[in-house]
Amino acid sequence: MAVKVLRVEGMRRDTRTAEERAALEAAEARTVDLSVEYVLTAARSQTGLDDFGAMDFTERLGLLLAEVAADANVWQANKAGFVDRCVKAAANRLRIQHYWHENPQCLDVPVRRPIDVVALPRSGSTHLENLLAADRRLRHLPVFLAAQPAPQPGAVAGPDGVDPRWSASQRHWERISGGNEILAAMHEHSPDHGCGENELQIPDFASYQWEWMADVPGFRDHYLGHDQTPHYLYMRKVLQAIAWQFPGEQRWMVKSNQHAEQLGPLLAAYPDATVVMIHRDPVATLQSLLTMRGLALKSSQKTPDIDAHVEYWVRRIETMLRRYLRDRAWVPAGQLVEVMFDDVVRDDVGTATTVLEQAGLDVTDECRADLHRYLADHPRGRNGRVVYDLEGDFGLNADQLRDRFAFYTDEFGIRSETGKGQR
Q: How far apart are CA 118 and CA 28, in angstroms?
């Protein structure tokens, strides 16, 4: 299969057309209500529901809204888009609370011995998650259910029998993949694709996922400074609600990059989890992450502040790795599986079967057939391949950056895999 090569152009420049910029400037006169009360009222109106459950989430919601409101470098149109995301999260919280109330037995559904990939972003975690989930003995969290875990009361499938949440997710993916081929190549988000389970914390206005949606260092500090165990228990309860809607005996195969720095709360939620860490050169991780998040930054900021963006995420990844090293000993003996990114690339089926075996699952001929079938249906590079330029786009020297992360790479003997212009 021929793979289309994609390159980001003008990371440090505003590459909008005159017409696009004029539309953004015209929208600056728009009044955007970034109050907590507006978000709650809009969510109630959207769903017809009014029970949010515990209201402590409003403090975190207020932090997010205030930080975005105060950022003079963000277009009003993008601030309005962020408010819409908050309304969606609050609406999901209402639906989840309603579902728990109407189906209290769902909270008795066991979540036994899940396999949880905790690798850093852009380290092959999504690929390994989806590959492992192809084993018919496992189930995964698909994008369309992460986007709306509980149904809207009264909603029914269309004439085709398809869940309306799936249809909405498919329309969203078509808009993304059709309008931004680089983003589509970097991170597939089709309805059935595996999704990070930390997205189930979004309706609790927790999770580092909010850092991907806006420049919110104050919220980051609050998240890092508070015990996340309550939000992990919330996540588990949402997963139980999903399991009740779609009953089955399979074990859960889930993943979240955030878990690398939250092993304590993760184990509080899933004490018998098999924890899977993929070790990758953090320089390679960063050049991919900086590009993906940088694309969103360019669209939301009036003047792209790439230097601040670089400083933020280099420090963020360092924090995640230092916390992983600090806490990995908390994982009980026999429950931690550490693999190398090189091995995932060289032999992904072999790596997957190693994980399955350590999770207590026999590798049968049927299992191998499931894994190979997934790979045949999902060839690498089918949406294109992005070429990165760490120095040209972000002003970073790979060798100097590698020295900063020697505390991690030396610990695990991780080889260097990146340089200027390399993928």
A: 40
